[in-house]
Amino acid sequence: MKSALKKDTVREIRHSLGRFLSIFLIVLLGCGFFSGIKATMPDMIDTAEKYFSDNRLMDIKLMSSIGVKSEDVEAVKKADDVQGVMAGYSKDVFYYHENQNLVLKFMSFNNVVDENSPNNLDKPVLLEGRLPEKKGECAVEVKMSSPNTFKVGGEIKIDEPDSSKKITDTLATDTYRIVGIVASPLYIGYERDATTVGNGTVVSNVFVPESEFVCDYYTELYVKFKGTDELDPFSDEYKQAVKDKSVQAVEFFKKSVNARFEKLSSDAQDSIDAAQEKVDILKQALACDESQLTELLATAQKSAEEAQEAYDKAEQSGSSTKYLARSQLLKARQLEEVAGKLLEDQKTGSTAAFDEYNGQLAAAEDEIAGAKKELEAVKTPAFYQYDRFEASSDYSSFYGDAQKIDSIAKVFPVFFILVAALVCLTTMTRMVEEQRTQIGTYKALGYSGARIAGKYLFYAATAAAAGSCIGVVVGLQIFPKIIYSCYNILYNIPDIDTPFKPVYMVLCLVVSVICTCSAVLYACIKELKSQPSQLMRPKPPQNGRRVLLERVDFIWNRLDFLAKVTVRNLLRYKKRFFMTVVGVAGCTALIVTGFGLKYSIKTIAEKQFNEIFLYDGIAVLNSADFDENQLENKISSITQVDKSMLMQSTDGIAENGSENQSVSMIVPKTPENMGDYIDLVSAENGSNLEVKSGSVIITQKLAKLLDLKTGDTVTIKLSGHEEKEFKIGGVSKNYALHYIYITPDDFESVYDEKPVYNLSFIDLKKDTDENSFKEQLIANDEFYGISFKNDSSRGFLNSVDSLDAIVILLIVCAGGLAFVVLYNLANINITERVREIATIKVLGFYDGETSAYIYRENLISTLVGIIVGLVAGKILHYFVVITSEVDLVLFNRQLVWWAYVLGALLTLAFAFIVNLVLHFKLKKIDMVESLKSVE
Questions:
Q1: Distance between CA atoms of 924 and 932, rounded to whole angstroms?
Q2: 498 near 52, Cβ under 8 Å?
Q3: Which of 135, 231, 487, 846 has its CA 20 to 30 A from that of 581?
Q4: Residues 655/627, Cβ–Cβ less than 8 Å
Q5: pTM
Q6: Using one digit for the tens of pLDDT, what is the confidence trace for 515-562?
Q7: What are 566-575's pLDDT values in tens digits?
Q8: Dihedral pair phi/psi, residue 617, rounded to 5°
Q9: Cα separation of 761 and 768, whole Å?
Q10: CA triplet 705, 707, 888: central angle to 5 degrees?
Q11: Which burial class, exposed, middle or buried, applies to 643 when counting CB atoms under 10 A from its CB (0-12, 13-18, 19+)?
Q12: 484 burial type by CB count under 10 A (0-12 exposed, 13-18 middle, 19+ buried)
């Protein structure tokens, strides 16, 4: 008997394969989506941690205003907890590309130190080609803003931004051949170091061996501490450990640099003193007549003899006074030489010596004046210390974006699982109910309730277990990779690791089996309470009752017979109707959210570059060689220019408490004309904003990230300047990147220097050809190049296109869920009404009419579900938009109308496909067999 039950259990799976697969697929979708989305954050964090550790990313970076020397490196190595120290060079250069000078940052890497040395820090990761080995070779990083010429085998010719210097004063050559494409753990995102040359933005980094630099000192010192690799690199514990361990290292660094500074100052003063002695000698000799020169010469000779004697004695005795004696000897001999030559000229009547010494006197005096001025200008060394998060906000952004994925994982997968659970509950409940006769037969044959329930538990558990296991395996591999590929527009950590996570499989397996088996137990216990004789008879149909619509005569009386039957059936089977509405609503909401998210991302460029940015282009000015009046006059002399305004753009960091973001500070020369180029509209009340003295305007996303509003104070740390605080006068709408607007007067009063206008807004006259204008502009020495708004817009659109993968993934998963839900519920509707359908066939309904009889109910349920789903979609879209935003952009919160339309149409399309499939099932219903009496 037991073997018969087992055979029947296996046979049940084969005979109801559609039902089994529907449970399998819906569990697979739910568990795959949940595990994949949920695993993305830990996979991103673990990948970053391994990337940092494998390439020995520094913990802190140290700099000083007088550079770094080898003695400073050795001093830091002696500090406790220091594992490795590496000094490096860097240099900002110009690269002429597409009629403009782009700023590249040349950086050194150490190709001499052993690969496994703890001092081999911040190792560049080779992506293509090889690392540079010979003179004139380089490796480049390729990111969104990199020139399209950055390819292996290409060549880059660079120039010195300061026209008074040569590039070969810093680098071995001005032409480099690209032999490799690399990524650096120092720069994991879009942001690069701020620069004071060109337009203030480094477009890409270039890596060359340390030997390519011909500098007297290093520019940076990187330090790595013991034990930090064992900590989560984004945790507060790691940050505190670095802070504690860096105290002594920074102290030793400052002490070494200050000692070097004191020696340099002392050596400079000694040089000035020596030059001053020469000046004094020359002045004394040149002011004497012949008799005075004779007397001076005799005195000098006597002093020289005495100094020589004193020096010889000190030399023999080994006394330290020999250095003083030698100085006195040199001074006496110099005076003797000058006095002798001038006296000879006096006797012969020549002026040769007099002229020569007058020239030397003037040169020495000029040299002393210049040296004193330089020495007075030299300030006590300034020190700069950065940890990973201070050196680049990309590390915080990466962690924040990973957390956003985790936030989405708390909603989307739960949404999927809830819908899946509801469908599984309905499916298994219906399966038990429709097999009442078999259950009654088993009970009559003596099978226990547990054995009978075991059949259905095995059925449900097998489908759920198979679906959850396969779903988790597939989800853990596919979803993190697809999602992370979208973030590659902002981050350049090469590849995400997606290890198998047994915990996720166990969790999904347990939850899915419990959900499906609970539904089975609920249905089985309910049925097993009945007697076998009751179970072996068909379950009596629900009693008909009047529905609410019947009480509205003017509507009810106008409905035909089939319409009245449809209304009654819908309201009689409330449970099935409710399940259909919930399932369809969930799927519709997900599809609407997917299309809405696509629109929210795509419209960023349109709003930013058409509604906010009103200018045509931004010209990069040669402010090093031309003053602002010359630049303005030159721009105004170009006939194609309609109007323009100079501005300064400087990169920096905006801070509020522990939060920080990279920003560009914009200083317009004429703030009252700012509205002609950038539409500053308040994000708080929609009013127009003006850049006024006494406060700054910050952009909307920056205010949100730093939790700031009008009237608050924001801290700004510009490149090369100390931190300063500013009062916020307004928050303006902005959709891409972060900006701060300030008046020239405020900038000068805060930083004690006038703005250096390195850029200019340009508005062109109508029908001006941008390419020809660019060629004309760049031909002038006053301009380094120009960036047109249209080009920036296209580049930004290309960069966000990769986010479509997430949207497509969401839509496909939602569509798959919608199809399974609709098919499953419609299939249940048919199987539990086989006798009813057979009856209407007997009454003469054709196949099409029979299908329409069922389709009406499905269609109405679907339409109600769609309406509910459209409302839910709006709420879900808003949540996803504010949760999934990356730090650099502000997504459009508006849900576009066609997202509603496409969501509804796709759901209807899935309903149509399901109905088409079920039409053939309806045709196969055997009228005779279905109407046979159970007895």
A1: 16
A2: no
A3: 846
A4: no
A5: 0.69
A6: 888 878 887 887 788 787 777 776 666 666 677 777 777 888 777 777
A7: 777 777 777 7
A8: -165, 170
A9: 16
A10: 15
A11: middle
A12: buried
